[in-house]
Amino acid sequence: MAWSVIEATPPHLTYLILSAFLILYALFSSFIRNRLHLSEPPLATVLGIIIGPNALNFIDPRAWGLEDSITQELARVVVGVQVFTVGVDLPKAYFNRHWKSVGMLLGPVMVFGWIIVALFVYLLLGTNIPTALIVSACLTPTDPVLAASVLSNSQFSSRVPRRLRHMLSAESGCNDGVSFPFLYAGIFALTAGSAGEGIKEWILETVLWQCVFGLATGGIIGVLANRVLRFSYGNGYIDDSSFFVFYILLAIFSIGVGSTLGSDDFLIAFGAGTGFAWDGWFARKTAEAHLPNIIDLLLNSSMFVYFGATIPWSHFTPSESTPYVTPGRLTILLLLILLFRRLPIVLALKRFIPDIRTYREALFCGHFGPMGVGALFLAIEARAQLETGTARPLPSPPKHSPHESAIEIIRPVICFIVLGSTMVHGLSVAAISVGSHYTKEVNERTPLIGGETEGLTGMVHEGGGGESEPSVSGDEDPDPNE
User: Fold this and answer.
1) Mind listing the pLDDT tens digit for each residue in 39-68?
2) H helices of 192-279, where?
């Protein structure tokens, strides 16, 4: 009789398993981060794979009707909130001092990565050039969710010069939005009736409306929100709980503005975060709240569990429309992307990026270009444009579409590369920590493997942390050498 009242439905099991995972991670978060040197995304992804339909089959989001449109909106919110958080967490007026370093990463580095990855996709998977450019554009940006999991407060992150952490965070906050011109260049090349029509749409719709207008709109939203919140706080109209909630609500509001206007959600969210915290006032008020860590634990970890449960394993094999998609070719593609997407160009441009001061730093920044939730969003955006000509994807890819091969190849390739990047970049911290431990003389090693706390060798750590600005945007007196 007692057993009959148990309702172990998939949604109920999801609440149970996901919350249990987050509780366990929270209880041992310091040990996991600072002793095992592991971050949430690879652990959450493995959990999603284990409880997903291809293993224990406790949860199957596809069986619940959670199709691409739901995944798209989940990714939109997770990435949008994360890039807003990046904008808030950067030192005040950061871009006034570091526009050149970030500009090099958003310009030459991104362009090189886009072209070289497109070349690999074209040669290995037998696509046409526009399709290769579309797939490559999805993999061009550095994912802010994965970046945050490594760059946020941990024993390892404290060993990396602060200027590098800020630079990589700023890049990850910008380049999901900046990748839209790359994505739509491939889409218009594939779908436009003529070259002139495609260039016109790309300039007017993508560059001017989505990017320029989006970034300006986000900045205005952020500055106005800052002024309104300061007025309300100064006059005692807002209590402490609402003060902290305002942070999340403004992030979601900026995402809503972007998606409703058909502009670049992520640039609007990043611009809003940057404008909101430009003067450092909000950061000073919330320095002890650790809001980004809370967001990492709840939103980001949940998204990677969802991703692990929805990986399309059966699509990693050849089909009529994707004859060259095989596990072997995808693995080779992953290795080539990890080796050549960023490393060569960052090393080559090291002397033109002021915040990168040694080749060891260039090697670190070149390696550290994870691909994650942002790539999943861009993949669905690309499929939607090819399926319907809008940002709304169909429940399933249409048959006999003129772009069928492009539509069919995007999802498996992006999911495979994101899975590989999540594991490689998520476990890189542990590998670097263990490696730095064993490269020391025996008498210089800490008792615990990877327990070192001093700065990584080969990097410039002047000023105690190699910082180029204050630790939070609300601190005063940035480095006078800037």
Assistant:
1) 888 999 999 999 999 898 888 887 776 678
2) 195-201, 214-234, 240-261, 265-276
